[in-house]
Each structure stands twice: as C-alpha cells, then as structure tokens.
Amino acid sequence: MTSRLRRRLQTRWPTRLLLVLAVLVAVAPPARSVGLVADLSSYLVAITTGFAGEDVLFFGAVDGPGDVVVVLRGPEVEQQVLRKSQVAGIWMNTARMTFQQVPSFYAVASTRPIEEIAEPPVLRSLEIGVEHLRLALPTALVSANLAEEWRAALIRNKQDQGLFAREHTKVTLRDNTLFRTSFYLPPNVPVGYYQAQVYLFRDGQAVSAQTIPLSVSKVGLEADVFLFAHQRPSLYGLVAVVIALLAGWIAHAAFRRN
User: Fold this and answer.
1) Is residue 200 within 8 Å of residue 206, measured between CB atoms?
2) Cα 223 from chain centre
3) What is the pLDDT of residues 40-70, one digit of tens each?
4) Which among 140, 143, 135, 152 has a CA at the least distance from the CA of 77?
5) 72 contacts: CB under 8 Å, gap ≥ 6
6) Would you list the domain boundaries of the chain?
C-alpha cells in the first residue's frame, strides 16, 4: 500500500457520509423501522500499467445499535485445483478437480468476530466467511470427506494469492450510527464487476441489507493490450514472438559492438 493511499485513508470521513446520514434521518419512519445506508469512495478501480494495489473505502450510517458486516465478492469464475503426488521420485499432478462459480475475490469486514454476531446457519445462508462459502462439488465425482479436502485446498490457494482474505477487516462504528471500513485490492486483483453486501445484524439476524456495485477495470495501454490479447490471440502471439526476436537481435548487436 503506497503512502499516498495511507494518507487518503487517514483523512476525515468523506463529506458524502454526512449527506448519507442526513438522508437516513430524513426518510426514516418512526422508531420501529430498520435503517441502513451505505456507500463507497469510488465505484471504479482503474488498473493501469503501474497499478500496485488500492484500498476501497466503505462508509455509511445505521439507525441504532447493531453489528455491521460488509462482504466484498469478485465475479464468479471456474476454478481448477490440482493435487501433486510423488511418482517414481518425481512430483507430478496426479488429480484435478474443477469448482464452478467460485468468487474470484472474497473479503469480509465486521464490527465483531462473525461467530459472535450470528449462528453458523445464518452465516451459511448469507455466505459470510470463507468457511461458509458454497463451494460444492458433484457427489458423483467425490465423497463428502474428499470434498472438504478439495475445498480446503481451493481456499488455501486463493489465500496464498491474496484473493481470499485470511482475516476479517474491522468495521469502525461510531455512536451506533456512522460506520466505515476499507478493503485492500492487491495488484493481481481480477477485473470484472464486484458486489459488496452490507448487512445490519441485530439479535443474530440480518434485519437490513444493501448491495453496492464496484467495477475493477483495466484502462489506458493496459486495457488496449488486454483486449487485443483476448480478441485476437493468434495475432497477439505472433506480435509477441516478433518483439522477442527483435529484442534478442538488438541485445546481440549491442554486445557484439562492445
């Protein structure tokens, strides 16, 4: 995280947050209603050539005591997990399993540990926490015990890549009204449309929820190269080979001259 990003997060809360609170107060009916209003600092994370990760700030207001939980999910993708085994003294890929609809990025923030906020069935129904994600495998392909091993391997791989958060981020709640938190998106964050689910919990139940979209997109030269590589892969490969040969020839000529 760059020093500029740290300074940005240490600044006072956005003016927009005060407007959010004003709207909540203005539209809230009498005391029996449940209110939650949330927003984020930017709806677009632009990935350029020098992208080194970025923090996304979430903030908002609630209408009284409770716990706030924020879940940030990336677009769902197909994910393959390989198992290595030693064959004749050589480590080789001996098995593979494909998961469908795996979040490409996943992180959770909460005012308290999630196990103190709600019971496992509630967390499981909302997929709050990596241990509660629905990462099912076809029963015809693998038994229940082996399925758990494959799930654990998938989660471990995603955590090693920095795409599944190992620990939950803290949600700061002030005066049971204003809250804020931030998620760090690493340099290898996948592009696509993300969703943040913001929940207000009371007495172990989600009493209010809001979904906020977030776009992670390549821009500038990075975007042009990305589109060219995916839309015309054969031509892209040819150009890459030509550039590599040209670079090698230039380096050879320079060394010969020296």
Assistant:
1) yes
2) 20
3) 988 999 888 788 899 999 999 999 899 999 9
4) 135
5) 56, 105, 106, 107, 108, 109, 183, 194, 195, 196, 214
6) 3-74+103-130+158-219, 220-258
Which residues touch 244 (CB under 8 Å, ≥6 apart)?
none
The pairing of beta strand 178-185 with beta strand 172-174: antiparallel
Total residue length of the chain: 258
Architecture of domain 3-74+103-130+158-219: Sandwich (2.60)
Task: Give me the residue label for tokens 């064959």.
Answer: 87
How far apart, in Å, are the Cα atoms of 175 and each of 25, 68, 178, 205? 15, 13, 7, 21
Token digits for 146? Answer: 């082996």
Over residues 226-255, mean pLDDT: 64
Are 77 and 102 a contacting pair, CB within 8 Å?
yes
CA–chain centroid gap for 11, Å, is 24
In degrees, rounded to 5, the angle at the alpha carbon of residue 18 between the alpha carbons of residues 17 and 22 is 115
Q: Whole-angstrom Cα distance, residue 238 to residue 53?
A: 31
The 3-state DSSP class for residue 185 equals strand
User: What pLDDT digit, counting tens, does each position of 108-152 carry?
Assistant: 999 999 999 999 999 999 999 999 998 877 655 666 677 788 889
CB 172 within 8 A of CB 145: no
